[in-house]
């Protein structure tokens, strides 16, 4: 009984933050809510937490009451992990530029963020094979991007295959050691792109291994 009373007491403490997290920003920043927050400081918009955190708190609290604490904690971990994976995948972005390299026009996609199963579909949608020039490069930012799993390799291959249908070439550069090692272990993959070490379009040593 004491445990449930303590649990209910904790829920009451975070209840204002939970309510705030589900109230639209337009209302929280309005004059009516600001006046209310001055009278009741616990309703201040500055005490707001993320909606996913509020949702996890409610789920863990409810499952603890109807099941047990162990199941509740596992459920909270699973929900938080799924959201984090989705959130990281949404951080993937590109900076697009077009440059002249000798007689060739080259379009460069500078990748920012991790390429893995959660961001693979987003990665594929960045490209425009039908209208891009004959040579396209994807540059991995060594400090801010990485090839993380097989889904990322498959996504690059899907993009490369699309360019190949238009008679165009896709070059990948800037992969870190881990990304190159991952590619070396997938040497049976029917690849539709070329891995290069520099911008000279020369195949890297990893590519020559295949």
What do you see in this structure?
- With 210 residues, the protein is an alpha/beta fold.
- Helix content is 50%, strand content 20%.
- It has 9 helices and 5 strands, in the order H-H-H-H-H-E-E-H-E-H-E-H-E-H.
- The protein has helices at residues 2-21, 25-28, 31-39, 51-66, 69-90, 120-124, 150-165, 177-184, 205-208; strands spanning 93-101, 104-115, 135-147, 169-173, 194-195.
- Helix 1 (2-21) runs antiparallel to helix 4 and helix 4 packs antiparallel against helix 5 (69-90).
- The longest helix is centred in the middle third of the chain and has 22 residues, at 69-90.
- The radius of gyration is 25 Å and the shape is elongated.
- Residues 199-210 have low confidence and may be disordered.
Largest sheet: 5 strands, mixed
**Share of residues in strands:** 15-25%
What's the number of extended β-strand segments?
5
Taking the alpha carbons of the first and last residues, their distance comes to 66 Å
What is the residue-averaged pLDDT? 82
Helix content: 40-55%
Low-confidence stretches: 199-210
Rg (C-alpha, Å): 25 Å
Given the helix and strand composition, which structural class is it?
Answer: alpha/beta
Spatial order of the strands forming the largest sheet:
1-2-3-4-5
């Amino acid at each position: 009984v004491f445990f449930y009373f303590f649990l209910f007491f904790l829920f009451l403490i975070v209840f204002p933050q939970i309510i705030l997290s589900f109230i639209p920003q337009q209302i929280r920043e309005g004059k009516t809510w600001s006046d209310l927050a001055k009278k009741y400081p616990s309703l201040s918009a500055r005490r707001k937490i993320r909606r996913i955190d509020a949702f996890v708190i409610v789920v863990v609290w409810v499952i603890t009451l109807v099941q047990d604490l162990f199941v509740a904690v596992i459920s909270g971990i699973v929900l938080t992990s799924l959201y984090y994976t989705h959130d990281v995948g949404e951080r993937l972005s590109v900076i697009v530029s077009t440059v002249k390299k000798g007689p060739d026009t080259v379009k460069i996609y500078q990748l920012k963020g991790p390429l893995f199963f959660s961001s693979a579909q987003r990665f594929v949608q960045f490209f425009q094979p039908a209208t891009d020039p004959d040579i396209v490069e994807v540059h991995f930012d060594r400090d801010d991007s990485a090839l993380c799993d097989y889904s990322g390799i498959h996504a690059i291959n899907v993009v490369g295959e699309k360019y190949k249908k238009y008679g165009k070439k896709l070059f990948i550069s800037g992969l870190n050691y881990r990304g190159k090692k991952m590619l070396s272990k997938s040497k049976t993959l029917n690849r539709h792109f070329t891995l290069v070490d520099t911008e000279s379009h020369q195949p890297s040593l990893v590519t020559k291994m295949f």
